[in-house]
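Annotated sample (chain length 136).
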Amino acid sequence: MYPTDLVMPMKAELTDKGFEDLATPAQVEDALKQSGTTLLVINSVCGCAAGAARPGVVYSLTGDKKPDHLTTVFAGYDKEAVETARQHLAPFPPSSPCVALFKDGELVHMLERHHIEGNPAGAIAANLQAAYDEYC
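Output written by the structure step:
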């Protein structure tokens, strides 16, 4: 488990932009059952989360279409919530950071860590905006 002082500023990069912080399994279950579209970010302390995932996700929300609900859990901190979230990401293996888009509770788009690592934030945003155009 990462120390709170380390994690909170990284959580704030998303929660300050309107993302709901899901800290318990029950919160994850409730969030992913919502009707409409739900973006789930499994946040992380790694460099690709800081350099590409978080900035790319935030930038993706500047377009005309965007998800109805914005949610996040933090790997290495919200352990049980992350485990619950990952149950909804099958068949994809555990990956952090990662970004998933759900529509009416069904997983419709997934960005795994290997899609994020080595890519600029703009590429992450463009990928997500294309998914929003299709599903939102």
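Annotation: The beta strands are 20-21, 37-43, 69-74, 98-103, 106-111.
Annotation: The mean pLDDT is 97.
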